[in-house]
Design a protein that fits this description.
Distance between the termini: 53 Å
Radius of gyration: 24 Å
Shape: extended
Largest sheet: none
Number of strands: 0
Oligomer: single chain
Helix content: over 70%
């Protein structure tokens, strides 16, 4: 008998794995890790955290959270949207790396760091927008299809004008993608 993946996941959903087990494990693990790391419940004679108390407390908090279906729904919606955002960022970094940017050191601040901070805050607001009561905020302020075409044209026009009119200098021999990656990651034009 062949295994049907859709029916397997449907079976997991029908027995409550996604609505109860996974949110419980997530909340339990996060609370337990925080209690162990901060040693909030104290330490024993060997200066180790009181794991038994931390386990019971994390278990209680995890079970209380799982009973509240509205909280579980918020967790499921938020985590799926943030996972999508993380995948998009990783793919972006992968594309920059493929085209020669040095992305190993991370974003170090400046304009790129501020831009990443703003994008991260917008992603969190986007992920929580239905639960916070302003689900139409992005749809209300998004440009229409004709405006998107105009914006794309303007962006392409600005990039072409910049590439044509820029002053020749030390970046002249560098690949465009390498320059973009180096600007984003604040390398000041240093390639690999």
């Amino acid at each position: 008998m062949a295994l049907d993946i859709n029916s397997a996941f449907g079976q997991l959903q029908s027995i409550g794995v996604y609505d109860f087990l996974l949110p419980f494990l997530l909340v339990f693990t996060v609370i337990f890790a925080i209690l162990e790391k901060t040693r909030l419940m104290g330490t024993d004679q060997n200066q180790k955290p009181k794991t038994n108390i931390n386990t019971i407390l994390a278990l209680i908090i995890g079970l209380i959270v799982v009973v509240q279906t509205s909280i579980v729904q918020i967790i499921n919606n938020y985590l799926s949207k943030m996972a999508l955002f993380i995948v998009i960022i990783l793919i972006f970094l992968l594309v920059l790396g493929i085209f020669g940017a040095n992305v190993e050191g991370g974003i170090t601040g400046g304009v790129a760091g501020f831009f990443v901070l703003v994008v991260a805050i917008l992603a969190v607001v986007w992920a929580l927008s239905p639960e916070l009561g302003f689900s139409d905020i992005f749809n209300r302020y998004l440009p229409s299809d004709s405006d998107r075409g105009l914006i794309l044209f303007i962006v392409i026009f600005i990039v072409v004008v910049w590439l044509v009119t820029r002053q020749p200098g030390e970046h002249q021999q560098e690949n465009v993608w390498t320059r973009i990656g180096n600007e984003v990651f604040n390398r000041g034009g240093r390639g690999r």
